[in-house]
Amino acid sequence: MTKPVFRFAPSPNGRLHLGHAYSALLNADFARRFRGRFLLRIEDIDITRCRPAFEAAIYDDLAWLGLTWEAPVRRQSEHFADYHAAFLRLKGRGVVYPCFCTRKDITETIACREAETGRDWPRDPDCAPLYPGICRGMPVDEAGRRIAAGEPHAWRLDMAALEKLAPGPHRFRTFDREGREGIVTAHPRRWGDAVVVRKETPTSYHLSVVVDDALQGVTHVVRGQDLEAATDLHVLLQALLDLPTPRYHHHGLVLDPMGDKLAKSRRSQSLAELRAEGATPQAVWRRLGFDPQPTPRT
Ligand code: GLU
After folding, report:
1. Full-model pTM
2. Contact 101/135 with Cβ under 8 angstroms?
3. Pocket of ligand 1 (CB under 6 A)
4. pLDDT in tens, 229-254
5. Residue 293 located in a structural domain
């Protein structure tokens, strides 16, 4: 039987904090209990925010925690060709369209519609307003001309077309530490016409994560609850790209004393700072609810 495959997939755009440590330790713990493999993936498609120094710090912090992972580590920035191939498949299926809108175009259109209807514009699970469909239905020759002229553009999923092409229901399996399993119905439409290829990067988080999980044979995804809703889109993309859907466990988030989610942007205390204050790896394990023990090499 093939071994279960787990992965921890941080982005090197800041120092790791306790929330990352929890996710990494939980993945390693599951891999140990399930006698599976533990991979590390560096999600560095956002080349403007990711830094080699942060990547080096990830290896250093995880090794300090006592974790080991398989080599080579997959770095997303080295695999844009894989994401492009997946994008071409989506394009071939006619489920994406180019979008030339600026943020301003979108905000202004939504403000107009809100004024016309007197109602708040619907939002996606991340609280961003749904795309109002400005470029959907643009004549193919016009889109082609604008692309040929080098006009910056993103590519969006055409959710209305998908309603017919891949109506679902889309489902995924869940698992937890107590051995419980479940089946969840995904609702990708709540994301509206989500971006699958960004203007400034030839892919997106959603597309790369789905491609990589499949290419790396990931069978069990363990990540924070803040990404739970994104799984709906991932399951849809897996169906469109004929990729297997892993099982998912979305864990609770480590909160700061104010009850807020830890975040690099909120300057939450980093593992590096904890280390500088004299914390031991064992203390971090215990603080996060794990029994300190060496994770065997797989
Ligand atoms: N790179 C993402 C993050 O750092 C995690 C992606 C995932 O686990 O699917 O939040």
Report:
1. 0.94
2. yes
3. 9-11, 43, 209, 223, 227
4. 999 999 999 999 999 999 999 999 98
5. no
